[in-house]
Amino acid sequence: xxxxxxxxxxxxxxxxxxxxxxxxxxxxxxxxxxxxxxxxxxxxxxxxxxxxxxxxxxxxxxxxxxxxxxxxxxxxxxxxxxxxxxxxxxxxxxxxxxxxxxxxxxxxxxxxxxxxxxxxxxxxxxxxxxxxxxxxxxxxxxxx
Length: 144
Prior knowledge:
Helices cover 36% and strands 14% of the residues. It has 5 helices and 5 strands; from the N terminus they run αααββαβαββ.
């Protein structure tokens, strides 16, 4: 049976930010919702949570095969707790963290994709939460 959007979001929150605290989980969920609401750039065709989470190359936890190997840390293996559902509902209802703005990306500075993203100039640092950097789109993003 396919997962509902709230189930996908709760599982993705747990998988990607589940051990980082409420604020980090809310920030991560907000990025997903922001991607649905943007009408330009690479996310313009993302209309649902499912579209965002399963967009190729976005979240490691959305795939069972990663770099040619089985990825045990995927949303199908996640067992969300009530907090993950609560945060998913909070984000779907349109709530946002004040300092997050319209952030479309979050990166760990240790991530290999982080340096590639920095050189693209499509995002401007909005805030840092725990060890993740959140970026709002720049005018260049609309041209992607």
